[in-house]
Amino acid sequence: MSFFWLKTYMPRSLYGRATLILVLPVLVLLLVVSIAFSNRHLQDVTTQMSRVVLREMTYIADSVAGAPHPEAALAALAPQLDVFEIKVRLLPPDETVPPDLVRWFDVSASAVRRTLRGTALDVVSIRLPDNREVTVVARENGQLIEYVFNRRRVTAAAPHQLIVTMLFFAALMTAISFLYMRNQLRPITRLAAAAQAFGRGQVVPYHPAGAVEVRAAGGAFLDMRARIERQIEQRTLMLSGVSHDLRTPLTRMKLELAMLDPDDAAPLVEDVDEMQRLIDEFLDFAKGTAEGEPEKTDPKELVRQVVADAARAGQPVTLVEASGEGSVMLRPLAIRRAVENLVGNALRYGNRAEVSVALTDKSLRIRVEDDGPGIPPELRAEAVKPFSRLDPARNQNKGGGVGLGLAIVSDIARAHGGLLRLSESEALGGLRADIVIGR
Fold this sequence. Notes:
This protein is α+β, with helices and mostly antiparallel strands. The chain has 12 helices and 12 strands. Among the domains are: 11-153, Beta-Lactamase, CATH 3.30.450; 293-438, Heat Shock Protein 90. The strands form 3 sheets. It has a 5-stranded mixed beta sheet with strand order 1-5-4-3-2. It has a 5-stranded mixed beta sheet with strand order 7-9-10-12-11. The two termini are 39 Å apart.
């Protein structure tokens, strides 16, 4: 039998699941103990006490109904009635007797009624309207006799005292356990918050704490974060150093080519320009995720500036949608570079581009669409890899780079805890590139 359907009703958070694990057994135990106490202990005690009162009522009924003068016999029983603590009254034979009255939630009252009715005494009516008195009307040899006695004669003084005590101490111990559990879970939530922030490109202070296992996981996370930061720093320094070193010979080559005949030097100039673009993309790739610190940024205003700059440069770019309000923790320069790369890529292979921004409570989406040839679905995963050129000849003819444009965008999106999604544009028919970042 599969229990996967239970996952739908399970809490998603660690606090919720830990609370359920803590509270559910306590509730089940209280329910079982309460039912056992109600069905066995409480009802057994009530039955025994009711049988004692029943024998006294039977004795009174036999003494009164068998006497020639019931009133005189009842008066003679007065000293015993005081001992029994029972008030007895003779009713006329034609007296209208009210029906039974037992509250539905009164467990002990139901046990009293079952005990008194399950005997030879002809009980006509049993009324337990409250916790003070019990009224019983019985018929003996045609004589109606009314018995009135204290409720404590047939039920315990505080029948639910044990249950109330258990509930109180269960709530108290559950609260104490929850406070202790919260202190134990707090280091785990801090570790999760630090890991989530690092996945979004933010470094928050974190010190391992808590149990031994949590401390070990926290120390491993700090070591991993330090290694990743060193790797990114080394990659940035290496690419930047190589790119800067290549600029010097390129500059000399440009000067030498300028002294040659323009017709003879034209092919070499194109090669040098291609190398210059390669170096520029190396620098962009190296700086892609290391430009500035995360800060609160209005993504709509940032994208508006990118579109406005492109429009001033005469490029056919329009902002078609900008929905949502609020700010997001972003590296503005890196996001700006990513949007500019997508716009440049769209105009390189298409005639126009459309940009949209959608900001919700859970995510930020920046979309760039074009009317170009697009990218086939089977090649989209390859397109975001560094130095991947799906069509080198086409890139060269249209002033393309070396296959780092989409890789830079993907790297920037991942540094913000998001991703780059490529699909087909329904509006323009070309490529649709979405930068999706969680808030």
